[in-house]
C-alpha cells in the first residue's frame, strides 16, 4: 500500500505530539518530517517532496501565509492550513493563504478529551486522503472545453441571476473570476462556498478585498440587486423566492453541507427558470447535482469549470458526467466571459 507522505509545519511541540498520535492510528499516512517554523517548512518541502503539507498559520521566522506563498512559487505542493479560529484576523489570513494556493482550510483539532475531537479528526483525515494527489488532478485534461464562439453566444442570452457553488480551490477560482468585475455588473450573484462556519465571516471579508462587487452577508427577505454578491455566513442554506428576495433556511444539512449547492441551485431554478445561470466550480464531492437537475429542467443554463483549471475536479466532473453542463470552460475563459458580459450589457 502506497502511503501518503505528510509534512507537518507547526511550532507547538504539544500540537505536534497530538498530531503524531492521531496519524499513528492510520496505516496509509506517514509523517516524513516536522518543521518548527515556516522557513523549515519551505526547505523540508523542497528536500522531502511530501504528498501534502499540514501548515500552521502563526510561527516564528516565517509564518504560514508567507511559507504557503513561497512553497507554491518554488515547489507546488498541496497545503492544508490548520489554525485555531478565535482571532478574526487569523480567519482572514487563512483565507488569504487559500488565495495563494493552499487547497484546504480546517480548524486545528481540539484535544483528545474535547467533545468535537473525533469529528474534527475524521474531517482532517478525509481531507488529507482526498487532497494528497491534487497536483495530479490539476494537470489532467479529459474533458474538451468549448470555444470562444460559445462564450460570445451565451453573452447574448438574457439571464436574471448567477448562482455559483464551489468547494476546495474555490477562493482561488473566485478571486480569478470576480477580480475584474465591479458594481456595474448587470446581474446579482448568489454564492455557496463550502467552508467551516467559523471561517465564513473571514471569507466574506476576504472576498470583498478581491472584488469591486459589493459583497453582502445575506439576510432573509432582502431584495437582490445587480452588482452584488450574496452569501450566507450563519450556517444556513441560501436561496431565492419568486419575487427575487433572499430566503435563508435552517433545514438539515444536505449530504453534510449547509449551505448546500443543491439547495441554492434548486431554489434559483424554481424561482427564475430559464433566466437562471449556474456556475459549478472546483471542489470535492458532488454537491449540486440534484439542484442542477432541477435548474436544468426549469430551463436554466449550466457552466462547469474544466478539469485542467480545477484544483479538485469533483463537483464540476459530477455535473459533466450527469450531462448537466451546457458548457465547459477553463477558469480564465469564465473570467473573460463574465467581464465581457459586464461590458456588453453596459454598452447596450
UniProtKB/TrEMBL annotation:
GO terms for cellular component: cytoplasm. One of its GO terms (molecular function) is protein-glutamate methylesterase activity. The active site is at 167, 194, 287. SUPFAM superfamilies: CheY-like, Methylesterase CheB, C-terminal domain. SMART domains: REC. Involved in chemotaxis. Part of a chemotaxis signal transduction system that modulates chemotaxis in response to various stimuli. Catalyzes the demethylation of specific methylglutamate residues introduced into the chemoreceptors (methyl-accepting chemotaxis proteins or MCP) by CheR. Also mediates the irreversible deamidation of specific glutamine residues to glutamic acid. Contains a C-terminal catalytic domain, and an N-terminal region which modulates catalytic activity. This is Protein-glutamate methylesterase/protein-glutamine glutaminase. It comes from Alteromonas profundi. The gene is cheB.
Amino acid at each position: 500500500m502506497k502511503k501518503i507522505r505528510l509534512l507537518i509545519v507547526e511550532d507547538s511541540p504539544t500540537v505536534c505530539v497530538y498530531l503524531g498520535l492521531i496519524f499513528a492510528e492510520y496505516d496509509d499516512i506517514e509523517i516524513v518530517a516536522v518543521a518548527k517554523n515556516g522557513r523549515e517548512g519551505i526547505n523540508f518541502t523542497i528536500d522531502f517532496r511530501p504528498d501534502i503539507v499540514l501548515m500552521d498559520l502563526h510561527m516564528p521566522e516565517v509564518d504560514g501565509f508567507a511559507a504557503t506563498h513561497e512553497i507554491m512559487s518554488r515547489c507546488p505542493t498541496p497545503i492544508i492550513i490548520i489554525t485555531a479560529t478565535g482571532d478574526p484576523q487569523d480567519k482572514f489570513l487563512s483565507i488569504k493563504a487559500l488565495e495563494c494556493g493552499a487547497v484546504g482550510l480546517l480548524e486545528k483539532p481540539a484535544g483528545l478529551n474535547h467533545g468535537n475531537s473525533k469529528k474534527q479528526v475524521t474531517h482532517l483525515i478525509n481531507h488529507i486522503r482526498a487532497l494528497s494527489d491534487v497536483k495530479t488532478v490539476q494537470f489532467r485534461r479529459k474533458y474538451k472545453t468549448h470555444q470562444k464562439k460559445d462564450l460570445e453566444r451565451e453573452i447574448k442570452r438574457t439571464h436574471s441571476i448567477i448562482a455559483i457553488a464551489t468547494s476546495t480551490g474555490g477562493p482561488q477560482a473566485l478571486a480569478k473570476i470576480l477580480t475584474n468585475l465591479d458594481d456595474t455588473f448587470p446581474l446579482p450573484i448568489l454564492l455557496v462556498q463550502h467552508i467551516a462556519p467559523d471561517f465564513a465571516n473571514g471569507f466574506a471579508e476576504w472576498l470583498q478585498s478581491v472584488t469591486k462587487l459589493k459583497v453582502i452577508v445575506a439576510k432573509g427577505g432582502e431584495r437582490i440587486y445587480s452588482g452584488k454578491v450574496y452569501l450566507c455566513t450563519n450556517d444556513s442554506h441560501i436561496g431565492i423566492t419568486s419575487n427575487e428576495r433572499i430566503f435563508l433556511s435552517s433545514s438539515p444539512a444536505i449530504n453534510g453541507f449547509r449551505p448546500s449547492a443543491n439547495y441554492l441551485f434548486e431554489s434559483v431554478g424554481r424561482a427564475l427558470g430559464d433566466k437562471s445561470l449556474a456556475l459549478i466550480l472546483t471542489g470535492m464531492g458532488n454537491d449540486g447535482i440534484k439542484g442542477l437537475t432541477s435548474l436544468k429542467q426549469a430551463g436554466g443554463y449550466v457552466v462547469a469549470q474544466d478539469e485542467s483549471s480545477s484544483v479538485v475536479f469533483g463537483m464540476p466532473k459530477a455535473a459533466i458526467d450527469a450531462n448537466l453542463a451546457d458548457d465547459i470552460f477553463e477558469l480564465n475563459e469564465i473570467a473573460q466571459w463574465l467581464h465581457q458580459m459586464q461590458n456588453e450589457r453596459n454598452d447596450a
